[in-house]
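Dear colleagues,

For the upcoming journal club I promised to circulate an example of a predicted protein-ligand complex. I picked one with pyridoxal-5'-phosphate because it came up in last month's discussion. The inputs are reproduced below in full, followed by the predicted structure.
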Amino acid sequence: MYSEMGLSEKVIALGKEAEQELKARFESIDETAEYNAMKVLHAMQKNRVSEACFAATTGYGYNDLGRETLERVYADVFHTEAALVRIQITCGTHALAIALSAMVRPGDEILSPVGKVYDTLEEVIGIRDSVGSLKEWGVTYNQVELLPDGSFDYEGIRKAIHENTRLIEIQRSKGYLTRKTFSPQEIGELIAFIKGIKPDVICMVDNCYGEFVEKVEPSDFGADMVVGSLIKNPGGGLAPIGGYICGTKACIEACAYRLSAPGLGQEVGANLGILPSFYQGLFLSPTVTASAVKTAIFAARIYEKLGFRVLPDSREPRYDVIQAVTLGSPEALCAFCKGIQSAAPVDSFVTPEPWDMPGYDAPVIMAAGTFVSGSSIELSADGPLKPPYNAYFQGGLTWPHGKFGILKSVQALLDAGVITL
Ligand SMILES: *Cc1c(COP(=O)(O)O)cnc(C)c1O
C-alpha cells in the first residue's frame, strides 16, 4: 500500500527504522492511554451515562439530562467539583475568555507567571487594544518572564503579586513559542508557591493540547480551573465544536453566569443533538491523544535523523502534542506542508499555498485536511514563511495516519530535492 500511495523504498525504510527505535517509548504511551481510557470509562459508568443522555434538546434547554450528566463526567475525569462543557462555548479562546472575565472585577489584576500568554488572549486581556477587552473594564495585566533556562522566576513572581492580583493565568503548552511545555507537577509547584503568598488568588490553567498526555492533569495539583477546546484533545476528533472549563464549584458558577446570563447560569443551554459526539469523543480521546503523541515523537525522531533541529527532541518527556521542526528554507517548509496535506483523508488533492493572514507579519502556510474544520487534534501543520522556517504540527487521530503523514512530508522534501536519502 505504501508504494501505491507514493512512498519510495528509502522513505519506508527510514520510517521502519525510526519506529523500531521508539518501541519502548510507544509502549509507555500506550500504558498512559490505557490508564486514561479507564479514568474516562469509570467516570461515565459512575454517572450512569445512558441512551437518554443522547437526546436532543431545543429552546432554553432546562433540565437537560445529557448536558448535566456530561458535565459531571468531565468533573470526575478532571477531579474537580464542577464543570461547564457546552456547545455554546465556541472555541478554546472563548472558554478562556469566559474563565478570565468571570473571575475578575474592575481594579483586579491578571498575572501570567510564565511569560507571554497565547496570541488570541492578548486581545481578550487588552495587551493589544481591542473592543470589549478586559482592559476596557479596568482590569490590569502583568507578566513575569521565565528565566533563561526556562524555569519559573520565583523571586520575580513573589514581587509581582500584590493586593489587586486576583487571577493567575498559567499556559501549560508552549503553543507557538520555543519555551518548554510544563508538566502538571511543575504547574502544581508553581501554584503551591503562589497560594503560599496569596491563598485566595485564583489559579487558572490554559490546558489546551495537554489533556490526557499524562495520567494527571493540572487540576490534580491545585488549579482552581482548567480550560480547553473540544476540537483539540478532549473532543477525540468527533466533537464538532465546544469548550470546557473544569474547576471549583464557585468558579464554575461564575463562569456559567458569564457564559449565559446572571441568574440563568448553568440552567440553560440546549444541546441541539450534538452530545453523542461529545460523549463518544471523550471516550476516544485517550487513545486519539496517544496517536497524536506518537506521531509527534515519530516526527521528532525522523527529522533528527535527517539532521534537522526539532523541538522537543525524540527523547524528552512530553506534556502536549505539539512538535516543531526547523526546516531552514521556504522551499522546505512548503514541501513539508504539501506532504502533510497530501496524506489527509479530506482535501488530499489540494496544494497548500502561503497567504497573508490577518494578524501575522509574514505569509503563513497551513496544511489541514480535516473532518472538523480547523480541528487541530487531526493531523495539521503550519508555519510562518520567515527564518528559521519552523513547521509546527500536531494531531493524528490514528497512529497509521499520523505515521503516513510524516512519511509523506519526508517524501515531499525528497521529491523537492531538499534532502537526499
Ligand atoms: C489552541 C489554543 C488556544 C485557543 O484555542 P482556539 O480554539 O484556537 O481558540 C489557547 N491556548 C493554547 C495554548 C492553545 O493551544
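Two points we might discuss: The radius of gyration is 21 Å. The CA atoms of residues 413 and 419 lie 6 Å apart.

See you all on Thursday,
B. R.
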